[in-house]
Amino acid sequence: MKHKLSLIFVLVFFILACNMPMMRETSPPLPNADVPPMPPVQNEGAPANPTPTVVPEAPIVHITQPGEPSRIRTWVTDRSSAQYASEHRAVADGYDRNLFERPFTAGEMTYQAHLDLTKVEMGEGGEWIYAVLHLEGAPPAEAEAFYAVEIDIDKDGRGDWLIGATAPPSTTWTTDGVKVWRDSNNDVGGTRPMDSEAPLSGIDGYDELVFDAGHGTDPDAAWGRIDPASAQRIQVAFKHNVIASADTFLFGGWSDEGVKEAGWFDYNDHFTLAEAGSPLSNSSHYPLAALFSVDNTCRWGYGFEPTTAYPGLCPLPEPTPVSPTSPPPDEPTPEICFPPTTYVCHNWNYTTCQCDDPPPSCDPPPQGCGANSQWVPYPDCYCAPY
After folding, report:
1. pLDDT digits (tens, 9 = 90+) for 81-139
2. Which of 58, 78, 122, 142 satisfies CB 3.0 to 4.6 Å to 297 for a cystine?
């Protein structure tokens, strides 16, 4: 029995040994051995170089869009440079006061009618505020100009919002190319709003892009198009709540196909006049250099009629003349005939609507006008840029 158990044990060990893997040393092939390389191990059906899966961006869904402005409330006009196009110059650029008339290329001073603003209207309709920018010429198909309105909510000369569209392609409302910039830290304009302080560092202008071609908290916040009534007008519309539904503010228009850097506002704080160049042919800084292909307007009030000379405001109108209470009975009073209120008129003639005595005069300031301005006599009495 003992021998039988021993025999069974030997047989079991032999069977197990035959099924165990052989443990042996293997050496790599010699450098010159004709051994074909082993193909990489792949899962059957898998590509050799799999590419990462790209998740498509969710499309922008628009719910509402502007219609037509039902009411134009106010507007501001701007000097045209069309008459000076052949002379490659402008006459109304006030660089030191942040007032640009530069619808020309740099160097060659080629006139660009699609940048030459002549008027900016502001209106409303429903929940929308509309801006209509009038131009001397229609934008060409390849134009990349940014047409915008700058809004000063607190009327301190510092723009708070810059809202505009990049050369809309058609008369259909679109958010493509539309941007809404905000100055989050109130440093547009530097320490002296509107006045040039270049080169001024430490400011970032319009630093917050709150809407970009439909991307933002509200994909319907702002739109742009070519005015269906005229290819020489650009319309920009934005929801009133974009600017916190402000009832009153100052506004001005912009066309910019040159620098287009919202973070560099105000431009006359970023560039010195020597760097920017000048469109004034009698200036030592002529022609245009770093600041070119841009035009803007002075500012006016929306929702109120300005009576205070806010920074950047257009010149205030002369006081409305008051009709005399008791004209001489023997003199016929013309339909429109008012005596002047800016000076005492001793001998008013109601037939000719003029004073018999000459108006007073005014002298220029003792230091004279600047190099790029000239004295305008009574009744204006100020240094006007040329």
Report:
1. 999 999 999 999 999 999 999 999 999 999 999 999 999 999 999 999 999 999 999 99
2. 78
Q: Residue 312's closest CA among 61, 47, 94?
A: 94
Question: Any residues with CB less than 8 A from the CB of 5 and at least 6 apart, and which?
Answer: none
| This prediction's pTM | 0.71
Helix (H) or strand (E) holding 267: helix 267-270
Which domains does the chain possess?
Answer: 71-302 (2.60.40), 318-386 (no CATH)
CA pair distance 183, 168, nearest whole angstrom: 24
Element (H, E) at 359: none
Q: Which residues pair with 179 in a beta bridge?
A: 164, 212
The burial class, CB within 10 Å (0-12 / 13-18 / 19+), for 355 is: middle
Phi, psi of 83 (to 5 degrees): -70, -15
CB-based contact 65:220 (threshold 8 Å): yes
C-alpha gyration radius of the chain: 37
